[in-house]
Amino acid sequence: MKRYVYINDDESSKELYCDNRISNRKYTLWNFLPKNLWEQFSRFMNQYFLLIACLQLWSLITPVNPASTWGPLIFIFAVSASKEAWDDYNRYLSDKKANEKEVWVVRQGIKKHIQAQDIHVGNIVWLRENDEVPCDLVLIGTSDPQGLCYVETAALDGETDLKTRIIPSACMGIDFELLHKIKGVIECPNPDKDIRRFDANLRLFPPFIDNDVCPLTIKNTILQSCYLRNTEWACGVAVYTGNETKLGMSRGIPEPKLTAMDAMIDKLTGAIFVFQIVVVMVLGIAGNVWKDTEARKQWYVLYPDEGPWYEVLVIPLRFELLCSIMIPISIKVSLDLVKSLYAKFIDWDFEMIDQETGIPSHATNTAISEDLGQVEYILTDKTGTLTENRMIFRRCCISGIFYGNETGDALKDVELLDAVSGGSPDVVRFLTVMAVCNTVIPVKSKTGAILYKAQSQDEDALVNAAARLHMVFVNKNANILEIRFNGSVIHYEVLETLEFTSDRKRMSVVVKNCQNGKIILLSKGADEAILPHAYAGQQTRTFIEAVDQYAQLGLRTLCLAWCELKEDEYQEWSLMFKEASSTLVDREWRIAEVCQRLEHDLEVLGVTAIEDRLQDGVPETIETLRKAGINFWMLTGDKQNTAIQIALSCNFISPEPKGQLLLIDGKTEDEVFRSLERVLLTMRITSSEPKDVAFVVDGWALEIALKHYRKPFTELAILSRTAICCRVTPSQKAQLVELLKSCDYRTLAIGDGGNDVRMIQQADIGVGISGREGLQAARAADYSIGKFRFLKRLILVHGRYSYNRTAFLSQYSFYKSLVICFIQIFFSFISGVSGTSLFNSVSLMAYNVFYTSVPVLVSVLDKDLSEGTVMQHPQILFYCQAGRLLNPSTFAGWFGRSLFHAIVVFLITIHAYAYEKSEMEELSMVALSGCIWLQAFVVALETNCFTIIQHLAIWGNLVAFYVINLIFSAIPSSGMYTIMFRLCRQPSYWITMFLIVAAGMGPVLALKYFRYTYRPITI
Amino acid sequence: MTDASREEHTQRETAFYLFTQQRLPACKPVLTPAWVITIFLFTGFIFIPVGLVTLRASRSVVEIVERYDAECVPEPFSIDKVSYIQDDSIPKNCTLFLKVNKYMKAPIHIYYQLDNYYQNHRRYVKSRSDQQLLHGQKYQSTSSCQPVEFNNDQPIVPCGLIAWSLFNDTFSFIRERAKLKVNRKNIAWKSDREHKFGKNVYPFNFQNGTLIGGGKLNPRIPLSDQEDLIVWMRTSALPSFRKLYGRIEEDLDADDVVVVHLMNNYNTYSFGGKKKLVLSTSSWLGGRNDFLGLAYVFVGSSSLILALVFLLLHLKYRRPYGDTSYLPWNRKSLSG
């Protein structure tokens, strides 16, 4: 499908395409309530509670006032809804701001000032310097005579360097005044979200030039949310507007991730639900039997002889309602609340602020902090993640001579400096490639120094190094490059740029030397992308050796080559290239094919070696996390030797004899299979030995292994604690994550560049490093951090605490609900199994929503061990990884505790308050206060560190309980009138309370102490 | 800004900083042997004396309990007690002789005790209208009172099963031919009389139906003065309960014999409930109930035993505090 945009035609496209109104809103004012309610009710838990609440409206079966369920339910819905509404309102405000921004647009041939939302497809939009681009535009004119303009795309892809954009050749030279009247048609694909591609064509209508079709690329566009820089003005045709822009299309709500803990909690909820059904059935049957045998004799109950048809259901339904509190209604809200606080703690953490850039860590996804504590596999990118991605030119090998080997820095190598000043032709050509073959833009600063704006750190390093070696890239004026070498100035005209892609693994430029008119092809790229294309007869052995030698040192290598072209050869090729560039289908592939035809018979000039230093603290971080039982996989696009060297230097793998590297390689299926089998065999044997065994696999073998030998490879993945995968593509990275996830491992993927985005999105937890390659990874990630070393703190401190806290909070929520529910069940046995509620509605509601929720919420401040201890003994993380704090058996412990506490409260209450004291309201208040006292002490016992806030919440809550009930007891119309006052005056009440606390907590304390001191859990 | 307010400001900022960094000053109690043993010892030493004092208070209460439901049925009806109680023509009076074993100091509480009587049954406990009790016939939405809501299309005041089943046995006490002074006033809660039962609400259409439940009410006395009803309507949470009937305001000496003339009107025979008459003095703790005292002594001595066990364990398996070689991963390497 294609879209035809008629330039400057107000009528034709107005109805066809949407206007430029941006809307990120989920709701409108009218559909908010129904839509939000619908969304909330799509959760099973909410449906369940709604059913319960509806059943309670039937007064025959409701044990308590329906308000006791409706109240909390409405409260919880209101909390979620207001959060949604607030978020949506903020989105609305920011939309509004963008929509109402004033822009200059040509209407009926006249420039007019209109609001951004009124822009239509086909309109011509004028921008001034530093303006934000309101929609996706195809450039047709700029203030620059060469038709260039500069844009900052930080908001789009996070890259902070300036990018050049150029007007299409067809619009070149059109007069400023005529731009108002320009007419034509742009043929472009339907909106998509690929911000690196725009395969379109432009045809201007007469009188503007001819009918020639002019190809358009992403280079000819400026996209929404970019800023115009260093250019006085620019104008363009709107092609995509509103939510159909590249930015708008790439927005989207990512699928919510579910943590392992959430899954466990859901499972436990299911178990409790089943238990509840069983209890209801048993009690329902018992109740009906009792009714038919005993209750008929109890004349004062006055049971009718003939009941309605649903008579038999009444008692089970009553018990269903009584037991519905078994599933705590507040758990979701509490969990959401504490989870957002965990995220805030990550945002706030001063120790995770990158001191260099001042960027704090950020948790984009607030719901998965617990998973951080349960990570088992970390898959990490190399460049920019483990390393700094600050490239420094270190060594080179020019036509067989190694420079920089002694000093470790070629720029200080006297031999090289001599060769440069001597003007050795090989060296000069080598330097020319370094300085010219790139997409760097030199910018003169005010002091006169030249700064380079480069998209790739490698190019930046090469150009800078060339400049240090007196081959200075001074200025780029449209297609003319100005190079200063040893005092003389050389001009090159760039004819064609054959861009870098990760498939081609090389880039080339075709330039014309303006002095002598020679056309040269300059290439640089990975060794395997350059060396095979050397002209027949060139000895490449020294270069291969050089590449190997440099890779051994952990340096990144690039091969430089050049080739002189004949004029007619170039012209012929140029036509093909133009044609390929203007195709709409498979353009990238066609271009690659055409490039291939030019890049042959190269003369390899030499090899550069660039150092990428490890980030601070990387070895320590990896060592600590490995001690914590986390397995590391390194996935990199780099070559095998470089990857292995980096892996060695950052403690990823141990050197021989302690460590052992097993290589999986091969070009054919058989070879790969055999090598896989061999590695697997070694792995099985050595798995019992305390030896670090790692396997190394390259992209090619990986492709075959994943396709044909998935099973043995999966087994290998399980056995191996460490792996290095080199030469892998972004999609292979994602596949590896998928593979580990399918084995039920919790995976964390960390990376910094656009090529890591897929892996980051695929993993259970994605961590992005907001590094030099832009923010693309950080944006896609769940967490973004400034440096790799923060990962240690993120996992060991934040992840672990979050896990511990949620484990306590969720189980406690069930515990407190079960306590009160068990008491109700016990009470039903002494009330004729008729479904009477011991507690009144107010108490039940307040118990769940208030008395027991507040103290436990402050458990988000609890720290079982100090941060220092955890960092010192990272093995502690094993407990979290293995899920030792929240699993069916710990849950059974809490279940048992709730049963025990219910028995204690119930038995003590009915015996201490027997006979003349057995008045219903009093007895129920005694039982309730017994529960509240126990809750306070249970929370206190499970709290490991008391800050002032915890003291306030735990003991203040106890005081608040009395204050609230005394207030209720002072209202004559309430059922509790005077009850609390009477109780507080009775010595027996207080004696009973202390008895409940001592009898309830004594065994719990003794058991906990005994287990902690004499039976610690083994790992 | 003054110095003081600035100081306060920075203090608040520091507090927030400490909160965000999760570094609020905290105390971290650890369950060390010393602490745990001390806690249990302490509990033991507190609970046992308190238990003994409580037990003493409970034992100081003198209590006479006499079951009378079976005895008061004349011999011929002992097989079919229900027909006896339901036959209005048979006189229901009955005499009990209570022997006082110990000196009882006034006031002596008179309770009637019902066993196996489910005042907490859901159908029963809900069958009342608090609003009607307070406002009388003016208040009309009394659907909660079903099935005792209307009779002959007239509302019943007080409505509901609880009022309908009012206990109606009566007792009078004679010692050495002299009638004992029994105070039947102030047996209900003051708050109930004043705020829960209306002063201008009179019984209406009560016990007029075909099915008579329990006692009748004097239609000329307002509900707030019908103390038997008020006591009865404070439902009990347990199937066995005592309710106050009155107070004897004279001391009873040991070996006194109290003759009780009672009207055995109330039907507990159909469901096998027991009726008991209880005379009891009271202490600061209330009536006679050994449970709290015994439980305290039990919990206290258990604590002492636990403390002792933990002490022995600690002496036998002493381990230094904070020794990392006990950590599981370190221990594994020690043994392996």
UniProtKB/TrEMBL annotation, chain A:
Signal peptide: none annotated. This is Phospholipid-transporting ATPase. One of its GO terms (biological process) is phospholipid translocation. It is found in: Endomembrane system; Membrane. CDD domains: P-type_ATPase_APLT. The keyword Metal-binding applies. Residues 778-1016 form the P-type ATPase C-terminal domain. Mg(2+) binds at residues 381, 383, 752, 756. Belongs to the cation transport ATPase (P-type) (TC 3.A.3) family. Type IV subfamily. It is a multi-pass membrane protein. The chain crosses the membrane at residues 44-61, 268-290, 818-839, 894-914, 926-949, 955-977, 989-1010. GO terms for cellular component: plasma membrane. The keyword Magnesium applies. GO terms for molecular function: ATP binding; ATP hydrolysis activity; ATPase-coupled intramembrane lipid transporter activity; magnesium ion binding. Residues 99-162 form the P-type ATPase A domain. InterPro entries: ATPase_P-typ_cyto_dom_N, ATPase_P-typ_P_site, ATPase_P-typ_TM_dom_sf, ATPase_P-typ_transduc_dom_A_sf, ATPase_P-type_domA, HAD-like_sf, HAD_sf, P-type_ATPase_IV. It is an enzyme of class 7 (translocase). The active site is at residue 381. Its cofactor is Mg(2+). Its main location: membrane.
TrEMBL record, chain B:
It is found in: Membrane. The keyword Membrane applies. GO terms for cellular component: endoplasmic reticulum; Golgi apparatus; plasma membrane. Keywords: Membrane, Transmembrane, Transmembrane helix. The chain crosses the membrane at residues 34-55, 291-313. InterPro entries: CDC50/LEM3_fam. It holds the Pfam family CDC50. Belongs to the CDC50/LEM3 family. This is ALA-interacting subunit. It comes from Corchorus capsularis.
